[in-house]
Amino acid sequence: MCQKEPRKRSRSSTRRLRYVRCVSFFMLGFFSSTITFLITFYATSNALSNIISSIFFSNSYNSELQVPLSPRDAIKNYQPRDFLGKRKSINYDYHLRYNDFNYRKPETLTYKSRTYSNNTEILFRFPKTTAITALLLIFHSCKHSAYEWFHTPERQRIIGAALDLGYACLVFQSTDKITKCWSNDVDLYQNKDIQMVLKGLEEFYKEYPQLVSVPRYTFGVSSGGIFSSILAINQQYRIQGQIIFISIILPEILYTYVKAQNYPPTVWIHMLRDVEFASETRIKASKQIFMEQNIPCNNFPIEPLQVKPTIFSERVPTIDSETSYFLYYLLLRNQWLNTHTYLLYNPRRKFAWQDFLFPQIEQNHTRARIYKSINDHKNEISEFLNTIYGEHEISYERSSEALNWFKELFTSSVKKT
């Protein structure tokens, strides 16, 4: 009995060893198969390759292999950004109310028109609910007109905010009747638009002499912004401040007059998807020059708009909620929204939206009424899509903040004197 015991133990140990070997071979085979499977897909799946890379390669090595997103790709895959004053800005614009006209009834923003002796037409509106504390000279962008500032919702809201803050609004029309762009000639005497505006102001002050002493500010959009940067150097009717919307200061002005400390305070309102013309980088560089010269300046970025079912009826008052929901549905169904519901494509560069938003529909179609509403608002929808995309288009956002910034700046400068 005592001699058989070791044999049993020996056989038991052998069985355990075989079992361990079998399990080991099985696990090794399974692991090898898995690795082979993953490596096969590594070459064919971008998403999986990213996962595998993050597991098997160090961060430093992986970062060397990754190709950074191009500016265009980054724009397409836009994600919400955080920036100074963002939350305050959202609340400010959302709760903005207009005392001088009814935003939901655009026809209530009335205005006057004067054509002076030099054939200069000025459209203007004075505040009705508050005293005039400043003049705001407004310059439109290319392909647009002065009249749009009293007949399109985003522009109306800019004027509405200005009126509530005590700005009397004067809107000018460029002399170029074809492109409707403003002259960027730095020679004030050769610049037809500069001479037109100065002569127009001279005639305007003859009619309203009590306004000569109030401070003058400008609001220039795109081409009108560059023009504003030139007008700012005139000495006949000095400008106390300017808002440059989705635009830049003409480089010749920036490096000559700003650096000579002979330039008014400036605010830029710019769109974060613009990486070429009025980009954030370019504006920061301009601001640096202003700060070096101790000239007050500020900038207010605008994010693209996240598309929601009510966005069209909220921003274009004449579009009803049913039409707004349907427009949202069409953009969603045709895969024009990214995961954060921002527009994926620039409506100015990809035109497929025109086919699915403005199709030819028979009158007896089940959604004929909605499609009629969409077609009746073709111009408004086309422009607002550019506002939604947020690269280079008019938007009322941040304008009230910018105008109020100038009002506070002027008040503080008066107290100091």
UniProtKB/TrEMBL annotation:
The chain crosses the membrane at residues 20-43. It comes from the Eukaryota. Keywords: Membrane, Transmembrane, Transmembrane helix. The keyword Transmembrane helix applies. SUPFAM superfamilies: alpha/beta-Hydrolases. This is Uncharacterized protein. The lineage of its organism: Eukaryota, Metazoa, Spiralia, Gnathifera, Rotifera.
